[in-house]
Amino acid sequence: MHEHKITVPVGGENPNPFEEWRTTVDRLGMDPEAATAMLDLASITQDETAPWEATVTWALDDETATPIAVELRSRKGHPVTPEAWRTVKVAAVIGETRNRLNWIYGRASQVLEGKGNPEVAAMAQAYADPLVDTPRRGRRSIYDAAHFARVAGLYEAAVSAGDTRPVRTVAHQLAATMQDPQLTKDNRVKAWVREARKRGLIHGERNNENG
């Protein structure tokens, strides 16, 4: 079990902090072989308009990802009061940190795979997968059986057509129908394909995309 603390701005004027953060990390580059430095990138922010910052502690292993603490800190020296906490959308804060960790581990896996280090790449992906759409404790996933059946149908149709990258194809199809362009850039569809396979909805060998 590993614990990671990720800090994000709260209450700023940027309507899409994840996109700004990802652009910044892409520009800086990352070295997946320097794990500490890589994870430090998850807390980078350029939103100076945010009066607060929140730190979420995640407990991770290769099967689960659990947010176990949320801390609030003022950037302007203001006291942390119940009134201040009421302005914080805790679910959104947890979601932002989850997306950042998922993206970091997923990108590290891709880079390591490209460097010919598949075993370590698989370890990084194992940490990324539980961070995809992690439901809050005591709550079921927001995706029902019909969703995974749809994913399976699209995936098997792509494979039957001879597609060598069916996960990417499914991601682009779902991005259009679900109106979520981010699906083509993160690891959610790959995790959905794996879940559909676990449910027995997808048959046959896994392809090179690990789908």
Structural description of this entry:
Helix 6 (145-160) crosses helix 7 (166-177) and helix 6 (145-160) packs across helix 8. A hairpin with a 4-residue loop joins strand 2 (52-60) and strand 3. This protein has 2 domains: 2-131, no CATH class; 145-198, no CATH class. It has helices at residues 17-28, 35-40, 82-86, 90-114, 118-128, 145-160, 166-177, 188-198; strands at residues 2-10, 52-60, 65-74. The protein has a 3-stranded antiparallel sheet, covered by helices on one side. The chain is 46% helix and 13% strand.
Helices and strands, with pairings:
Blueprint: E1 2-10, H1 17-28, H2 35-40, E2 52-60, E3 65-74, H3 82-86, H4 90-114, H5 118-128, H6 145-160, H7 166-177, H8 188-198
Antiparallel strand pairs: 1-2, 2-3
Proportion of residues in helical segments: 40-55%
Largest sheet strand order: 1-2-3
Biggest sheet statistics: 3 strands, antiparallel
Strands, count: 3
Mean pLDDT: 81
State the distance separating the first and last CA atoms.
25 Å
**Share of β-strand residues:** 5-15%
In sequence order, what are the helices and strands, one letter per element? EHHEEHHHHHH
| Rounded radius of gyration (Å) | 18 Å
Characterize the overall form: globular
What distinguishing features does this structure have?
211 residues; alpha+beta; 2 domains; 8 helices; 3 strands; globular
What's a quick, concise take on this entry?
With 211 residues, the chain is of the alpha+beta class. The protein folds into two domains: 2-131, no CATH class; 145-198, no CATH class.
